[in-house]
């Protein structure tokens, strides 16, 4: 097992953990911001104010149809070229994933609000609640409960997709693994480290994402039995 | 005897659903099975074509034992060609039009030619007054029409026996009649009909024998006349809301 | 930035788009086939196969496609399994897609009423005929929206195969900018335009297909 690369991985493990921290950080910040903006967008998309709806719809489709890899690339290189400033991959990543996540959640919330039976709106207004109170006390709690499974699912997708940030130079778990692989090769060209390392990465990602997927399914079952 | 049931037992876990059932069904007769919901009548029906496995006892079709232990699928396929079934929830295949619903079984199970199967289907639909619905999809039909098609679909297989499992239970009252009329028209055609239903008037007019079940047991087998006007057991009198006199209580 | 080189970019992007479309359609085909077979296996609760399918679906849904591709392209050759970037992309995308399609089609199967399958049994229909005439057509029309969504997802995901040197759209975009930063803007525009030219007609066709299939089944 001389060539398996396990020893190199063990030696570089602290660095790998730094990478993991970066991965989780980008995913977590984008996730929290996505939830906040997502709910806001969902409500905005339901306002039935035509110009706003159209603009948001176009943006939603843009984020749906264009892969985040292209957004990362366009913003990272495009902004630096146009404004002649050195763009920070970390900031760009958070911007892209936040936008992506916000529109995903926004559409979920919008879809859920528009599927609510009319009488809920009418009876809350009949109770004398104003629009803001209606959202706060009647609609929001329901939306939160119903959209939770999909939102947890989005967290899984965010974590998986953040591996793309390695392409714009962010030192995430993938990027650091690749530099470990390169150094090991340089010292030992017969090393099998790229096999071992990528396998380890697959397992690490699986260990993070699988429990989240189970959680999402679990919540979904709970919610559908409400 | 067309169908003979001896000492049949069936339980789900510890819950006994059918307890020592004995029943003889003559060829060409109409047997109506009645009882409160949950008395086991539907399960009994489903045992007759192997949709439920029985725990003990025997069922004979023309003196041939059909409930041998460990019977494989092929065995039940052969039996099910001879014993058709129509159930409460229509169960027409939603992605096929009326004609395709009807010819699927004849073509795939009985391997008949398409032409023959279509002719048969057309003839049957005519008989129940649905000739104009031949290319309609199930979603375009009313409940009563769906159920009539379901009956025709069972008839297409040329069974000897048809099991009707509460076929009118899910219908609007206005449509119950048209379905019952179709079942009635099958009487005296050599077909043996076994009908689970709550329709008393139908039972009284059409049945050759009434089987009354209570709590997983057959408590009374009699003619409609006797069953409806002088039932012999307390359970049947309760079911029919008749006064229970001391003579019977003993 | 000279206009000549901007026009020179167009054939490059046209070729790259062709690669994307070719890899996408092939992977969608295999993914669909895997999904169909595996969801039927799940329906029949085939003992060992069932656990394998569940593990496969869980694994591919919970790991990044980027790392799957790296593993197959750079990792597997270390154990003497080697593919070129085309084959590798098709393998990875088909397996990811297969996992998503299995889940989608299986939920379609689960949505078919059990009463209906029961009456099919009562009619004496064999398992094979039940699968061919009742289960597959209905499961597909129930899950058609998920199937088309997965197909669009797979088409987009072709761009992640840039990392294993597949000469698709994003790969070419990165390559050109690496040489000529002055072409950043036209390259960015052409990248987005290429994708829209592939995906917009695709999603239009899919939504028509969906409407047609759903209509046949459930009406307007």
UniProtKB/TrEMBL annotation, chain A:
Domain of life: Bacteria
UniProt main location, coarse: membrane
Membrane topology: Multi-pass membrane protein
Keywords per UniProt: Cell membrane, Membrane, Transmembrane, Transmembrane helix, Transport
Residue intervals of the ABC transmembrane type-1 domain: 20-216
GO BP of this protein: amino acid transport
Annotated GO MF terms: transmembrane transporter activity
Pfam families registered for this protein in UniProt: BPD_transp_1 (PF00528)
Keyword Transferase in annotation: no
Location relative to the cell: Cell membrane
UniProt xrefs under PROSITE patterns: ABC_TM1
One GO CC annotation: ATP-binding cassette (ABC) transporter complex
Residue ranges crossing the lipid bilayer per the database entry: 24-44, 65-84, 90-113, 195-219
Keyword RNA-binding carried by entry: no
Family that this chain belongs to: Belongs to the binding-protein-dependent transport system permease family.
Protein name in UniProt: Amino acid ABC transporter membrane protein 2 (PAAT family)
Annotated source species: Paenibacillus cellulosilyticus
From TrEMBL, chain B:
Sorted UniProt keywords: ATP-binding, Nucleotide-binding, Transport
Recorded superkingdom: Bacteria
Positions of the ABC transporter domain: 3-240
Classification via SMART domains: AAA
InterPro entries attached to this UniProt entry: AAA+_ATPase, ABC_ATPase_HisP-typ, ABC_transporter-like_ATP-bd, ABC_transporter-like_CS, MetN_ABC_transporter-like, P-loop_NTPase
Sequence similarity: Belongs to the ABC transporter superfamily.
Entry-linked CDD domains: ABC_HisP_GlnQ
One matching Pfam family: ABC_tran
Protein name: Polar amino acid transport system ATP-binding protein
UniProt-recorded Gene Ontology molecular function terms: ABC-type amino acid transporter activity; ATP binding; ATP hydrolysis activity
Gene3D superfamilies: P-loop containing nucleotide triphosphate hydrolases (3.40.50.300)
From TrEMBL, chain C:
Top-level taxon in the UniProt lineage: Bacteria
UniProt lineage: Bacteria, Bacillati, Bacillota, Bacilli, Bacillales
UniProt similarity note: Belongs to the binding-protein-dependent transport system permease family. HisMQ subfamily.
GO cellular component terms, A-Z: ATP-binding cassette (ABC) transporter complex
Keyword ATP-binding: no
Alphabetized UniProt keyword annotations: Amino-acid transport, Cell membrane, Membrane, Transmembrane, Transmembrane helix, Transport
Compartments (UniProt record): Cell membrane
Name recorded for this polypeptide: Amino acid ABC transporter membrane protein 1 (PAAT family)
Source species: Paenibacillus cellulosilyticus
GO biological process, one term: amino acid transport
InterPro entries referenced in this protein's UniProt entry, alphabetically: AA_ABC_transptr_permease_3TM, ArtM/GltK/GlnP/TcyL/YhdX-like, MetI-like, MetI-like_sf
Pfam families found in the cross-reference section: BPD_transp_1 (PF00528)
Coiled coil region boundaries: none
Transmembrane portions of the chain: 20-44, 56-77, 83-101, 185-206
Topological type in the membrane: Multi-pass membrane protein
A GO molecular-function descriptor: transmembrane transporter activity
Residue ranges occupied by any ABC transmembrane type-1 domain in the UniProt entry: 17-206
Gene3D superfamilies given in the database record: MetI-like
């Amino acid at each position: 097992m001389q060539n398996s690369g396990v020893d190199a991985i063990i030696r570089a493990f602290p660095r790998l953990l730094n990478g993991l921290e970066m991965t989780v950080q980008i995913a977590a910040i984008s996730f929290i911001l996505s939830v906040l903006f997502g709910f806001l967008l969902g409500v905005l998309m339901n306002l039935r104010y035509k110009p706003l709806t159209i603009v948001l719809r176009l943006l939603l489709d843009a984020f749906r149809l264009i892969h985040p890899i292209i957004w990362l690339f366009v913003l990272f290189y495009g902004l630096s070229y146009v404004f002649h400033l050195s763009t920070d991959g970390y900031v760009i990543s958070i911007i892209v994933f936040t936008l992506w996540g916000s529109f995903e959640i926004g559409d979920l919330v919008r879809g859920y609000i528009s599927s609510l039976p009319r009488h809920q709106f009418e009876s809350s207004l009949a109770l004398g609640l104003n629009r803001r109170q209606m959202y706060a006390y009647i609609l929001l709690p329901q939306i939160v409960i119903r959209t939770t499974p999909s939102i947890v699912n989005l967290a899984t997708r965010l974590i998986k997709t953040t591996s793309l940030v390695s392409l714009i130079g962010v030192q995430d778990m993938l990027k650091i693994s690749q530099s470990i692989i390169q150094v090991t090769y340089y010292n030992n060209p017969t090393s099998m480290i790229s096999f071992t390392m990528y396998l380890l990465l697959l397992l690490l990602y699986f260990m993070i994402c699988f429990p989240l997927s189970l959680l999402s399914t679990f919540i979904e079952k709970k919610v559908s039995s409400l | 005897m067309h169908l003979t049931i001896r000492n049949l037992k069936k339980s789900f876990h510890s819950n006994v659903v059918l307890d020592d059932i004995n029943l003889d069904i003559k060829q060409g007769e109409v047997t109506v099975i009645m009882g409160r919901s949950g008395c086991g009548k539907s399960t009994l029906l489903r045992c007759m074509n192997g949709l439920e496995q029985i725990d003990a006892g025997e069922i004979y079709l023309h003196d041939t034992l059909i409930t041998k232990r460990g019977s494989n699928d092929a065995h039940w396929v052969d039996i099910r060609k001879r014993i058709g079934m129509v159930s409460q929830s229509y169960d027409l295949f939603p992605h096929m039009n009326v004609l395709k619903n009807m010819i699927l079984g004849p073509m795939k199970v009985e391997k008949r030619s398409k032409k023959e199967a279509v002719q048969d289907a057309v003839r049957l639909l005519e008989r129940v007054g649905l000739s104009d619905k031949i290319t309609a999809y199930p979603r375009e039909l009313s409940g009563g029409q769906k159920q009539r098609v379901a009956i025709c679909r069972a008839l297409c297989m040329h069974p000897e026996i048809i099991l009707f499992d509460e076929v009118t239970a899910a219908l609007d009252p206005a449509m119950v009649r048209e379905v019952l009329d179709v079942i009635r028209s099958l009487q005296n055609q050599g077909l043996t009909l076994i009908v689970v239903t709550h329709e008393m008037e139908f039972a009284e007019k059409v049945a050759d024998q009434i089987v009354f079940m209570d709590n997983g047991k057959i408590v009374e087998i009699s003619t409609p006349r006797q069953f409806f006007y002088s039932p012999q057991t307390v359970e049947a009198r309760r079911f029919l809301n008749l006064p229970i006199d001391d003579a019977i209580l003993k | 930035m000279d206009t000549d080189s901007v026009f020179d970019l167009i054939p490059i992007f046209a070729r790259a788009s062709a690669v994307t479309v070719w890899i996408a359609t092939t992977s969608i085909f295999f993914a669909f086939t895997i999904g169909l077979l595996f969801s039927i296996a799940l329906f029949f609760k085939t003992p060992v196969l069932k656990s394998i399918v569940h593990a496969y679906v869980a694994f591919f849904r919970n790991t990044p496609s980027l790392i799957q591709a790296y593993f197959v392209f750079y990792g597997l050759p270390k154990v003497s399994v080697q593919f070129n970037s085309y084959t590798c992309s098709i393998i990875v995308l088909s397996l990811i897609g297969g996992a998503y399609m299995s889940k989608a089609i299986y939920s379609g199967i689960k949505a078919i009423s059990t009463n209906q399958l029961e009456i099919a049994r009562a009619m004496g229909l064999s398992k094979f005929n039940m699968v061919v005439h009742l289960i597959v057509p209905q499961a597909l029309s129930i899950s058609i929206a998920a199937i088309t969504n997965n197909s669009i997802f797979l088409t987009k995901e072709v761009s992640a195969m840039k990392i294993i040197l597949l000469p698709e759209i994003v790969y070419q975009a990165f390559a050109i900018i690496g040489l000529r930063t002055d072409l950043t803007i036209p390259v960015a525009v052409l990248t987005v335009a290429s994708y829209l030219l592939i995906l917009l007609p695709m999603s239009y066709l899919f939504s028509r297909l969906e409407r047609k299939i759903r209509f046949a089944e459930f009406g307007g």
